[in-house]
Amino acid sequence: MSYPPDDFDGPPPAPSRPSGGLRVPPHNRDAEESVLGAMLLSVDAINVGMERLSAEDFYVPAHQAVFEAIHELYNGGQPVDAVTVADILRRRDELERIGGLGFLTTLSTAVPTAANVEYYASIVSEESVRRRLLAAGGDIGQLATSTDRDIDWIIDEAEQAVFRVAERRVGDTLQPISAFIDPTLEKIEEFGNRGGGLVGLPTGFRDLDERLSGLQPENFMVIASRPGMGKSALAMNIARNIALNDGVVAVFSLEMSQEEIIQRLICATARIDNGLLRSGRLGAEQWPRVLEAAGKMDQAPMFIDDSSYLTVTDVRAKCRRLQRRKGLDLVVVDYLQLMQGRSRENRQQEIAEISRGLKNLARELRVPIIALSQLNRALEARTDKRPQLGDLRECLTADTRIQRSDDGSTTTIGEIAREGLTNIPVYSLNDEHRLVPAVMAEAWSTGEKEVFRVTTASGRT
Q1: Is the dihedral of CA 147, 149, 154, 157 positive or negative?
Q2: Are 214 and 202 in contact (CB under 8 A)?
Q3: In the structure, what pLDDT confidence band is assigned to residue 356 with cuts at 50, 70 and 90?
Q4: Which of 1, 194, 220, 408 lies in disulfide reach of 362, CB 3.0 to 4.6 Å?
Q5: Does the structure show a pLDDT above 60 at 12?
């Protein structure tokens, strides 16, 4: 195959398999060109390439430019061939730097067969993973030489660097239904063999177990209430019951310290009022029960993290490590709103992102995850105090502007609350994250709260 000129921005061209002492990052030029050539010839090959690869997976910068041009045409529903790709590159002032139309023509004529594109793509993907692992290794090497960081933090960062490489790998997740029939029948048979017993992890609460049939693997559950209603006590008692029955439990507490959690667990196990322990008013007859409860909890496979700053990535790394070392049966997060996300739009989207991350983690680890959540004050303004899903959402500030869906005018939450308006037509995100007309029942004040205005590097506030 003909290679693009050496003056194209980025690493210089190199043989597919360098020899001697020259250290060139792992790559396979022939496989990269074969993928691109196949994509110039076949729509099916384009689908494979778009599913399996990204521009960053190509080592040669010219190949990255060609892939990006194909990507633009593909997303725009335009035909893809050497001429249309050349037109895109010409408009980007990149055509001559990659070798002109002749290089693109060579790509499409030199590919052995477009039918092997999946194999070519797998080679490109594997070489890309090797390069990212090398980069991660370099980052880990720098972390290891850092003397101003705690070693546990360095280990977590090193694990996350490798996990980020693994997470970028995309497999063939679209499977025929026939692949799931036999496993499903085996699961149904397992249910029958239990003779009506629980099919999930027992919580220790009979009524709850009857309703849920135990905690199911891969399930993400939210225990929500207003403050002081006992959601932490419920979650900790579920965790305690499972741990005392040899289930491995990970508890992430952003609100309570490890000491406070241990005190609660001991009191619950000893059936003693926590207030007596905290006030130092335990009687002589109660001390043996406390010591016995402490002995039981000492042997329980429960692990507690009371870090005040926690992201989904942190939870994932720590749970993966625990699962490898000890196994894992249940994860508890107390509580959702105290976790940190990556969204820069608003807190409601950040909480939604955290929830999705924990749901995905439950599926990834194949264990149930219980997350605690505060309810907003919406239910306090209703006659019916039973919580609704909307009560999980974050409150908005009075100057938050919304657009009416009937006439397109804008107003603020504060104006709606002051005027006592109800059933306001607005726009809302549906389950597909698209804006659709909806109705805001009402708005009300919850009092003055401290609000911070942040300006990003891009100038947005």
Answers
A1: negative
A2: yes
A3: confident
A4: 220
A5: no
- Going by C-alpha positions, the residue among 24, 105, 97 that lies closest to residue 64 is 97
Tokens 């019951």, residue located: 241
Domain-terminating residue out of 167, 190, 205: 167
The whole-number pLDDT of residue 18 equals: 44
Domain presence at residue 198: no
Contacts of 69 (CB under 8 A, 6+ apart): 85, 88, 89, 92
Q: CATH number, domain at 47?
A: 1.10.860.10
If asked whether residues 236 and 350 sit together in one domain, one would say yes
Q: What is the pLDDT of residues 208-228, one digit of tens each?
A: 887 877 888 888 888 877 676
Which amino acid belongs to residue 258? Q
Q: Give 404's DSSP letter.
A: B
The domain total for the chain is 3
Residues 344 and 440 in one domain: no
Both 37 and 103 in one domain: the answer is yes
Q: Which residues contact 39 (CB under 8 A, 6 or more apart)?
A: 45, 46, 49, 67, 70, 80, 117
Phi, psi of 6 (to 5 degrees): -75, -15
Phi, psi of 69 (to 5 degrees): -65, -45
In 198-296, the DSSP E strands lie at 220-225, 249-253
- Domain encompassing residue 76: 29-167
- Residue 402 within any structural domain of the chain: yes
pLDDT digits (tens, 9 = 90+) for 289-316: 888 888 888 888 999 888 878 888 778 8
Are 255 and 360 part of one and the same domain? yes
The pLDDT, as a whole number, for residue 312 is: 81
Q: Looking at the predicted structure, is the pLDDT value of residue 170 above 70?
A: no
Give domain status of residue 351, yes or no: yes
Query: Residue 383 contacts by C-beta under 8 Å, 6 or more apart in sequence?
Result: none
Please state the φ and ψ torsions of residue 330, each to the nearest 5 degrees.
Answer: -155, 145
Q: Give me the residue label for tokens 């997740």.
A: 173
**Which of 197, 213, 174 is closest to 52 using CA atoms?**
174
Indicate which CATH number applies to the domain containing 231: 3.40.50.300
Residues 6+ apart with CB under 8 A from 458: none
- List pLDDT tens digits, range 89-131: 999 999 988 888 989 998 988 888 888 898 999 999 999 999 9
Which of the listed residues 343, 374, 405 is the one where a domain comes to its end?
A: 374
